[in-house]
Amino acid sequence: MISGAKQLITLLKEFDTAPPSQLRSRVKLLIPVWDELRALGTSLIPGEVAVSARERILHYLRQYPREIISHKEIMVVAGISEWARRVRELRVQFGWSIMSGTTAREMLAEEESLASGATMPDCSGMKPEDYILLDEHQDRDAAYRWNIANEIRRSRGGSKARILEYLRRNAGKPVTGEELRYVAQNAAEWARRVRELRTEDGWPVRSRQNGRPDLPNGSYLLEEDRQAPVHDRRIEDRVRREVLVRDRYRCCDCGWSRETWNVDDPRYLELHHVEHHAAGGANSAENLLSLCNVCHDVRHRNVRA
Ligand SMILES: [Zn+2]
Ligand SMILES: [Zn+2]
Fold first, then answer.
1. Cα 232 to ligand 2 centroid, rounded to whole Å
2. What is the mean pLDDT of each run of 10 residues along the chain (305 residues)?
3. Residue 182 CA, ligand 2 centroid: distance in Å
4. CA of 273 to the centre of ligand 2 (A)
5. Which ligand is nearest to the CA of 289?
6. pTM of the predicted model, to two decimals?
7. Strand extents, DSSP E, 55-130
8. Domain spans in the chain, listed from the N-terminal domain onward
Protein backbone atom coordinates (compact mmCIF):
# COMPACT_ATOMS: atom_id res chain seq x y z
CA MET A 1 0.00 0.00 0.00
CA ILE A 2 1.28 3.43 -0.90
CA SER A 3 1.30 5.91 1.96
CA GLY A 4 -0.65 9.14 1.60
CA ALA A 5 2.41 11.33 1.16
CA LYS A 6 3.99 9.09 -1.51
CA GLN A 7 0.68 8.82 -3.34
CA LEU A 8 0.47 12.61 -3.33
CA ILE A 9 3.92 12.97 -4.85
CA THR A 10 2.98 10.55 -7.64
CA LEU A 11 -0.23 12.45 -8.34
CA LEU A 12 1.56 15.80 -8.34
CA LYS A 13 4.15 14.49 -10.80
CA GLU A 14 1.33 13.48 -13.14
CA PHE A 15 -0.14 16.92 -12.79
CA ASP A 16 3.22 18.52 -13.42
CA THR A 17 3.73 16.69 -16.72
CA ALA A 18 0.29 17.58 -18.14
CA PRO A 19 0.48 20.18 -20.92
CA PRO A 20 -0.27 23.67 -19.52
CA SER A 21 -2.74 24.37 -22.32
CA GLN A 22 -5.15 21.66 -21.16
CA LEU A 23 -6.98 23.56 -18.45
CA ARG A 24 -9.73 21.07 -17.82
CA SER A 25 -7.52 18.00 -17.64
CA ARG A 26 -5.20 19.81 -15.23
CA VAL A 27 -8.13 20.68 -13.00
CA LYS A 28 -9.21 17.03 -13.10
CA LEU A 29 -5.71 15.89 -12.22
CA LEU A 30 -5.83 18.09 -9.14
CA ILE A 31 -8.99 16.46 -7.79
CA PRO A 32 -7.28 13.29 -6.49
CA VAL A 33 -4.51 15.49 -5.09
CA TRP A 34 -7.13 17.42 -3.20
CA ASP A 35 -8.78 14.25 -1.87
CA GLU A 36 -5.48 12.67 -0.93
CA LEU A 37 -4.31 15.79 0.87
CA ARG A 38 -7.53 15.90 2.82
CA ALA A 39 -7.23 12.24 3.76
CA LEU A 40 -3.66 12.83 4.87
CA GLY A 41 -4.74 15.74 7.10
CA THR A 42 -7.51 13.79 8.80
CA SER A 43 -5.27 10.74 9.23
CA LEU A 44 -3.00 12.77 11.52
CA ILE A 45 -5.50 12.18 14.32
CA PRO A 46 -6.35 8.47 14.35
CA GLY A 47 -9.87 7.10 14.53
CA GLU A 48 -9.35 5.65 18.01
CA VAL A 49 -8.91 9.21 19.26
CA ALA A 50 -11.54 11.03 17.24
CA VAL A 51 -14.12 9.77 14.76
CA SER A 52 -15.67 12.98 13.43
CA ALA A 53 -14.38 16.30 12.14
CA ARG A 54 -15.70 17.96 15.29
CA GLU A 55 -13.83 15.53 17.52
CA ARG A 56 -10.63 15.99 15.54
CA ILE A 57 -10.86 19.77 15.89
CA LEU A 58 -11.43 19.44 19.62
CA HIS A 59 -8.59 16.98 20.04
CA TYR A 60 -6.25 19.32 18.21
CA LEU A 61 -7.24 22.40 20.23
CA ARG A 62 -6.91 20.47 23.49
CA GLN A 63 -3.35 19.52 22.58
CA TYR A 64 -2.46 23.21 22.48
CA PRO A 65 -4.55 25.16 25.02
CA ARG A 66 -3.88 28.90 25.17
CA GLU A 67 -1.89 28.82 21.96
CA ILE A 68 -3.04 30.82 18.97
CA ILE A 69 -4.21 28.35 16.33
CA SER A 70 -4.67 29.38 12.71
CA HIS A 71 -7.94 28.43 11.02
CA LYS A 72 -5.84 26.72 8.38
CA GLU A 73 -4.58 24.22 10.94
CA ILE A 74 -8.20 23.54 11.88
CA MET A 75 -9.01 23.11 8.22
CA VAL A 76 -6.26 20.51 7.81
CA VAL A 77 -7.28 18.32 10.73
CA ALA A 78 -11.03 18.74 10.12
CA GLY A 79 -10.83 17.71 6.47
CA ILE A 80 -14.21 19.28 5.73
CA SER A 81 -15.19 22.65 4.33
CA GLU A 82 -17.72 23.26 7.13
CA TRP A 83 -15.12 23.34 9.87
CA ALA A 84 -16.21 26.81 11.09
CA ARG A 85 -19.65 25.50 12.00
CA ARG A 86 -18.06 22.63 13.94
CA VAL A 87 -15.95 25.11 15.91
CA ARG A 88 -19.08 27.07 16.76
CA GLU A 89 -20.86 23.91 17.93
CA LEU A 90 -17.94 23.02 20.16
CA ARG A 91 -18.13 26.47 21.67
CA VAL A 92 -21.81 27.09 22.12
CA GLN A 93 -23.36 23.63 22.42
CA PHE A 94 -20.54 21.71 24.03
CA GLY A 95 -19.15 24.47 26.22
CA TRP A 96 -15.53 24.64 25.13
CA SER A 97 -14.13 28.10 25.65
CA ILE A 98 -12.82 28.71 22.15
CA MET A 99 -12.30 32.39 21.42
CA SER A 100 -11.93 33.69 17.89
CA GLY A 101 -9.50 36.42 16.89
CA THR A 102 -12.46 38.63 16.00
CA THR A 103 -13.84 38.43 19.53
CA ALA A 104 -10.40 38.92 21.07
CA ARG A 105 -9.87 42.11 19.08
CA GLU A 106 -13.30 43.45 19.99
CA MET A 107 -12.58 42.86 23.67
CA LEU A 108 -9.12 44.40 23.50
CA ALA A 109 -10.59 47.46 21.74
CA GLU A 110 -12.67 48.04 24.89
CA GLU A 111 -9.61 47.66 27.08
CA GLU A 112 -10.68 44.26 28.34
CA SER A 113 -7.37 42.75 29.22
CA LEU A 114 -6.76 39.23 28.03
CA ALA A 115 -3.91 39.07 30.51
CA SER A 116 -1.00 37.91 28.43
CA GLY A 117 1.75 36.38 30.49
CA ALA A 118 3.27 33.06 31.38
CA THR A 119 0.09 31.09 30.67
CA MET A 120 -1.48 33.27 28.04
CA PRO A 121 -0.10 34.58 24.75
CA ASP A 122 -0.51 38.16 23.58
CA CYS A 123 -3.86 38.09 21.76
CA SER A 124 -3.44 41.50 20.16
CA GLY A 125 -1.73 39.87 17.18
CA MET A 126 -4.54 37.38 16.54
CA LYS A 127 -6.02 37.41 13.05
CA PRO A 128 -9.82 37.38 12.86
CA GLU A 129 -9.89 33.72 11.86
CA ASP A 130 -7.44 32.51 14.49
CA TYR A 131 -8.69 30.57 17.47
CA ILE A 132 -7.55 29.97 21.01
CA LEU A 133 -8.81 27.42 23.51
CA LEU A 134 -8.83 29.40 26.75
CA ASP A 135 -9.68 26.62 29.16
CA GLU A 136 -9.08 22.88 28.84
CA HIS A 137 -12.18 22.14 30.93
CA GLN A 138 -15.59 21.77 29.38
CA ASP A 139 -18.35 23.99 30.78
CA ARG A 140 -21.21 21.54 31.30
CA ASP A 141 -23.89 24.21 31.73
CA ALA A 142 -23.15 25.54 28.27
CA ALA A 143 -25.86 23.55 26.48
CA TYR A 144 -28.46 24.96 28.86
CA ARG A 145 -27.21 28.50 28.29
CA TRP A 146 -27.18 27.85 24.58
CA ASN A 147 -30.98 27.48 24.64
CA ILE A 148 -31.36 30.74 26.53
CA ALA A 149 -28.96 32.48 24.15
CA ASN A 150 -30.95 31.37 21.12
CA GLU A 151 -34.24 32.48 22.61
CA ILE A 152 -32.83 35.94 23.41
CA ARG A 153 -31.01 36.24 20.12
CA ARG A 154 -34.33 35.98 18.29
CA SER A 155 -36.09 38.49 20.55
CA ARG A 156 -36.78 42.08 19.65
CA GLY A 157 -34.76 45.00 20.94
CA GLY A 158 -31.26 46.27 20.36
CA SER A 159 -28.05 44.40 20.95
CA LYS A 160 -27.56 46.08 24.34
CA ALA A 161 -30.99 45.02 25.57
CA ARG A 162 -30.32 41.45 24.47
CA ILE A 163 -26.91 41.37 26.13
CA LEU A 164 -28.44 42.66 29.37
CA GLU A 165 -31.23 40.12 29.22
CA TYR A 166 -28.71 37.30 28.77
CA LEU A 167 -26.54 38.52 31.64
CA ARG A 168 -29.59 38.82 33.91
CA ARG A 169 -30.78 35.31 33.06
CA ASN A 170 -27.28 34.12 34.04
CA ALA A 171 -26.76 36.43 37.02
CA GLY A 172 -24.08 35.11 39.34
CA LYS A 173 -22.62 32.81 36.66
CA PRO A 174 -19.77 33.71 34.32
CA VAL A 175 -20.56 33.75 30.60
CA THR A 176 -18.11 34.12 27.76
CA GLY A 177 -17.54 37.07 25.46
CA GLU A 178 -18.36 34.71 22.59
CA GLU A 179 -21.83 34.12 24.05
CA LEU A 180 -22.49 37.83 24.48
CA ARG A 181 -21.34 38.44 20.95
CA TYR A 182 -23.72 35.74 19.76
CA VAL A 183 -26.82 37.10 21.55
CA ALA A 184 -25.93 40.56 20.23
CA GLN A 185 -26.20 38.92 16.81
CA ASN A 186 -22.51 39.44 16.30
CA ALA A 187 -22.88 43.22 16.28
CA ALA A 188 -19.29 44.38 16.19
CA GLU A 189 -19.85 46.82 19.02
CA TRP A 190 -21.03 44.18 21.52
CA ALA A 191 -18.01 44.72 23.80
CA ARG A 192 -18.73 48.43 23.93
CA ARG A 193 -22.36 47.74 24.85
CA VAL A 194 -21.15 45.53 27.71
CA ARG A 195 -18.92 48.32 28.94
CA GLU A 196 -21.79 50.80 28.78
CA LEU A 197 -23.96 48.51 30.87
CA ARG A 198 -21.25 48.73 33.52
CA THR A 199 -20.03 52.32 33.21
CA GLU A 200 -23.24 54.14 32.26
CA ASP A 201 -26.14 52.01 33.41
CA GLY A 202 -24.63 50.72 36.65
CA TRP A 203 -25.01 46.97 36.14
CA PRO A 204 -22.38 45.04 38.09
CA VAL A 205 -20.85 43.39 35.01
CA ARG A 206 -17.37 42.26 35.95
CA SER A 207 -14.45 40.83 34.09
CA ARG A 208 -10.88 39.97 34.89
CA GLN A 209 -9.83 43.50 34.17
CA ASN A 210 -12.82 45.18 35.77
CA GLY A 211 -13.25 44.13 39.35
CA ARG A 212 -12.83 40.36 39.32
CA PRO A 213 -9.24 39.26 38.68
CA ASP A 214 -10.29 35.70 39.61
CA LEU A 215 -12.48 35.33 36.49
CA PRO A 216 -11.20 33.33 33.53
CA ASN A 217 -9.94 35.16 30.47
CA GLY A 218 -12.67 36.15 28.06
CA SER A 219 -15.47 35.86 30.66
CA TYR A 220 -17.99 38.29 32.03
CA LEU A 221 -20.11 38.02 35.15
CA LEU A 222 -23.18 39.93 36.27
CA GLU A 223 -22.54 39.71 39.99
CA GLU A 224 -26.09 40.46 41.02
CA ASP A 225 -29.29 41.17 39.17
CA ARG A 226 -29.41 44.68 40.51
CA GLN A 227 -28.68 48.03 38.91
CA ALA A 228 -26.62 50.44 41.02
CA PRO A 229 -28.37 53.50 42.51
CA VAL A 230 -28.48 56.31 39.94
CA HIS A 231 -25.79 58.36 41.68
CA ASP A 232 -23.30 55.48 41.52
CA ARG A 233 -23.81 54.54 37.89
CA ARG A 234 -21.44 56.51 35.72
CA ILE A 235 -17.93 55.50 36.59
CA GLU A 236 -15.26 54.99 33.95
CA ASP A 237 -13.48 51.65 33.89
CA ARG A 238 -10.12 53.39 34.28
CA VAL A 239 -11.30 55.08 37.49
CA ARG A 240 -12.98 51.90 38.77
CA ARG A 241 -9.76 49.96 38.35
CA GLU A 242 -7.73 52.68 40.08
CA VAL A 243 -10.06 52.69 43.11
CA LEU A 244 -10.22 48.89 43.42
CA VAL A 245 -6.45 48.52 43.16
CA ARG A 246 -5.92 51.35 45.67
CA ASP A 247 -8.34 49.70 48.13
CA ARG A 248 -6.76 46.28 47.40
CA TYR A 249 -10.11 44.83 46.40
CA ARG A 250 -11.36 45.17 49.98
CA CYS A 251 -14.41 46.79 51.53
CA CYS A 252 -13.26 50.01 53.19
CA ASP A 253 -15.80 49.55 56.00
CA CYS A 254 -15.57 45.88 56.99
CA GLY A 255 -12.51 44.60 55.12
CA TRP A 256 -14.46 41.98 53.15
CA SER A 257 -12.66 40.63 50.09
CA ARG A 258 -13.23 37.93 47.46
CA GLU A 259 -11.12 35.44 49.40
CA THR A 260 -13.82 35.31 52.09
CA TRP A 261 -16.67 34.83 49.62
CA ASN A 262 -19.05 31.99 50.41
CA VAL A 263 -22.43 30.83 49.10
CA ASP A 264 -24.32 31.80 52.26
CA ASP A 265 -23.05 35.36 52.06
CA PRO A 266 -22.43 36.08 48.39
CA ARG A 267 -21.09 39.60 48.54
CA TYR A 268 -19.38 41.66 45.90
CA LEU A 269 -17.61 45.01 45.75
CA GLU A 270 -19.24 48.24 44.64
CA LEU A 271 -17.97 51.78 44.38
CA HIS A 272 -19.57 54.42 46.56
CA HIS A 273 -19.38 58.19 46.10
CA VAL A 274 -18.25 59.91 49.29
CA GLU A 275 -19.96 63.05 48.12
CA HIS A 276 -22.95 61.77 46.22
CA HIS A 277 -22.82 62.18 42.51
CA ALA A 278 -26.32 63.71 42.51
CA ALA A 279 -25.06 66.33 44.96
CA GLY A 280 -22.14 67.28 42.71
CA GLY A 281 -19.62 64.64 43.83
CA ALA A 282 -17.11 63.82 41.12
CA ASN A 283 -16.49 60.46 39.46
CA SER A 284 -12.87 60.70 40.54
CA ALA A 285 -10.85 58.16 42.48
CA GLU A 286 -10.56 60.58 45.43
CA ASN A 287 -14.34 60.70 45.75
CA LEU A 288 -14.86 56.95 45.46
CA LEU A 289 -14.62 54.11 47.96
CA SER A 290 -14.71 50.35 47.52
CA LEU A 291 -17.48 48.90 49.66
CA CYS A 292 -19.04 45.47 49.83
CA ASN A 293 -22.71 45.56 48.82
CA VAL A 294 -23.81 44.98 52.44
CA CYS A 295 -21.85 47.96 53.82
CA HIS A 296 -22.89 49.99 50.80
CA ASP A 297 -26.55 49.43 51.66
CA VAL A 298 -25.87 50.40 55.26
CA ARG A 299 -24.24 53.69 54.20
CA HIS A 300 -27.23 54.60 52.06
CA ARG A 301 -29.75 53.62 54.73
CA ASN A 302 -27.97 55.86 57.21
CA VAL A 303 -28.03 58.76 54.79
CA ARG A 304 -31.77 58.42 54.30
CA ALA A 305 -32.46 57.98 58.02
ZN1 LIG B 1 -18.27 45.72 53.96
ZN1 LIG C 1 -23.17 54.68 47.14
1. 6
2. 81 90 91 93 92 96 95 95 92 89 87 67 88 89 86 90 96 92 88 91 88 86 88 84 93 90 82 81 90 90 64
3. 33
4. 5
5. 2
6. 0.74
7. 98-100
8. 1-43, 230-305
